[in-house]
Amino acid sequence: MSVQVIMRDGLPEYAVLPWEEYQALLTSGHDASVAVPVEASTPGTLPKFSTLLALREAKGLSQEALARLVGISPAYLGLIEGGERDPDNAIRRALARALEIEGWQQEA
After folding, report:
1. How confident is the model at residue 50, as a pLDDT?
2. Closest by alpha carbon to 34, among 10, 21, 62, 53?
3. Would you say residue 81 has pLDDT above 50?
4. Nearest 10 degrees: CA dihedral of 15, 53, 101, 90?
5. How many CB atoms lie within 10 A of CB 38?
6. How far apart are CA 4 and CA 14, in angstroms?
7. What is the distance between the alpha carbons of residues 53 and 65, in angstroms, rounded to a whole number?
8. In terms of C-beta density within 10 A (0-12 exposed, 13-18 middle, 19 or more buried), how is residue 60 classed?
9. Spatial separation of the C-alpha atoms in residues 62 and 79, rounded to whole Å
10. What pLDDT is recorded for position 104?
11. Which backbone phi and psi does 7 adopt, to 5 degrees?
12. Within 10 A of 70 (CB to CB), how many other CB atoms are there?
């Protein structure tokens, strides 16, 4: 998913995504008004992963498939999606690559 976040005063104000991806969100069975709220504290920082489940489902990936792409167990991915674990930067970068999310990668 290619999401562009427009920031104002250091906070996300708008999320812009391609029309086809927006339509996929609408048909994924989630309420589009809450499907992909990107949370970030300041520009250039990684967003919280509270929306990981919605992002994964919008890409049409199962938990097992995303975990395999990232190189972690499905159980650990479930903990991340549930907010019980905060992934390290290497896992965040791998998740960003797997979900094709721009701006979530931090340099090592």
Report:
1. 59
2. 53
3. yes
4. 140
5. 18
6. 8
7. 13
8. exposed
9. 15
10. 59
11. -100, 150
12. 22
**What is the chain's percent helix, strand, coil content, to nearest 5?**
45, 10, 45
- Return the sign of the alpha-carbon dihedral for residues 29, 33, 101, 104: negative
Contact present, 70 and 95 (Cβ < 8 Å) = yes
Structural tokens at position 54: 């919605």
State how far the Cα of 18 lies from the Cα of 100, in Å rounded to an integer: 13
One-letter amino acid of 82: G
Q: Which of 91, 13, 2 is nearest to 46 (CA)?
A: 91
**Model confidence pTM above 0.70:** no
What letter represents residue 5's amino acid? V
Residue type, 51: T
Cβ(98)–Cβ(69) below 8 Å: yes
Token digits of residue 105: 């990668």
Position 63 scores a pLDDT of: 93
